[in-house]
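User: Show me a protein chain along with its predicted structure.
Assistant: Here is one chain, sequence first, then structure tokens.
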Amino acid sequence: MSLTPPIRPFDATPLLDRVVLITGGAQGIGRGIAQAVLGAGGRVVVGDLDRDAGHACLAEWDVGARARFLPLDVSREASVRTFATRALAAFGRIDGLVNNAGPADPVINDVSTLSLVDWRRFIDGHLTGTFLCSKYALPALRDARGAIVNIASSRVLQSEPHTEAYASAKGGVVGFTHALAISEGPQVRVNAISPGWIVTDDWRKPSARRAPKLSKRDHAQHPVGRAGVPDNIGALAVHLLSDAAAFITGQNLIVDGGMTRKMQYV
């Protein structure tokens, strides 16, 4: 007679002692992910262009050697190479990578007046940065049988005017995600998260921090009744980085409070 599979308890610290690299991790969604990883028992290396924001994180978190900040420009290969090398030297392993960095304001110019410089700023900041960081973290990730989480956007499914550069970059991130998942399986799992409206005003560095100002109408657009917060993305990132998500790879998970499923008429 076969035995019934046992009930397995959930791990309270699913990333205990695991090392996760988070790009653009000093503010906004990236900071939310970094704090979630720390809360799950992990160790983080935050890479960011903003040194003040990075050092402020370390001071506010006060977790000692469990967190490091390293300056990082994901659009420059030399900067990415140095970041990955220093992170590995500091902790001796890399268990996870979160590719979050990139220009945050999606609305720019009409395509007919959009400069090639601005177009490349979005493509390099989001798509090329995701490629470069993955490239230099992969050897260590393979050794650890780790995971990558790429931050895309719900804008891969819906748009507003004059966001072509941002939408194209994020769409490329989704394509890169499932292609890399197939290439790297079964050693490294690769998934994407596409956030919707995430309020980050109070997740900035201290000098830029302010209370969010959203209307009831803003919140009511979401079937869950409110806009999102960085913690919502962080919680899913922790799951995807952990062994609990061992059967999930190549996916793009939408986290938008149901907004992309709601019909909207003007």
